Amino acid sequence: MIHRLAFLLGIGLMPLVPSICSAQQSDSASWSVIAGTGQTDSQVANEPSDPQTVALRNVYGIEVTDDAIYFSTVDDHSIWKCDRQLTKMQRFAGTGQQGYSGDGGPAIKATFNAPHEIRADAAGNLFVADTRNHCIRRIDHATGQIETLGGDGVAGFRGDGGPGKQARFDQPHSIVLDGDGGVLVADTKNHRLRRIDLQSGIVSTIAGDGRPQLPTAGNTADQVSVFGPRSLAIDDNAVWLVLREGNSVWRIDRATNKIRRVAGTGGKGYSGDGGDPLLATFRGPKGIAVDSAGNLLVVDTENQALRYVDLEQNRISTLPIEFELKRPHGAAVIKRHRDVDVYLLSDSENHRVLANRVLATQQ
Fold this sequence. Notes:
The protein is mainly beta and 363 residues long. Helix content is 0%, strand content 37%.
């Protein structure tokens, strides 16, 4: 009989279903729950447990490393670690209680306040946007210790040009490593994109002037407003920026620092599939990821949808998902060199994580 659904994450168990599309996305893909029970009263995995039996209370961020998948949960203020084979998962950081404590000690004994997105560097160190503590924290891969890199735990705006621990942020939701020795921070309620230099600790603003307005396309990022920056992604050529209140997606060119709109008119709605992404509308988008073809997954949260922006073909679509979504937030891509990518989606208020490629293994 079928023992369980095992998720193919590049471990070579059997071939994937081939794509019927020219891009990386495939309308033939079948989505499945890979983690979370969909309930909030299931067991707490302080010991390694089957990911499908563990409660993930309002799961938000997803990060994939060579040996693990990490999830952040907003309602129990924790970070979870799952092996790449999806056989065991347990709490990795946070006690499950709301708070702001633990710096200098083990991350598993620290407290957070609604951590949103998480990112790992090449060494496996984990960075956390501790959103309602208004700070950015780092978990050392070798020691498991946690420290605060930026923010003093108080909402506000200050500190550019000075050390991160004396700076103030206001509900930072997203972070990315820029590959140049810095962490970029979507400082959401300050309407700014900021950077923490990992060597010096110095904080600077690289986009946004604090005004809740859409950017002016064609200007450099340091000369524009950014309206509610909510999620970030990065590749070799660009920083991708989702403006939640601005209902649009923007690209900052890493060579020229110029910003341009790539999807969304800025108005609220749910329209445009099959056409030019610039003419489409979103409703409160909150997550973004880049696939191996260089195209975008955009989590259209308040439309309960996952949109796909094919930049080469200049077309936007909604990916067909068999599950009814409830305020999804985070997305991630497991990039594959020869086969089609695997997409992950946090179905947040259904308390589960979905993936677009599964296989059944026989016992």
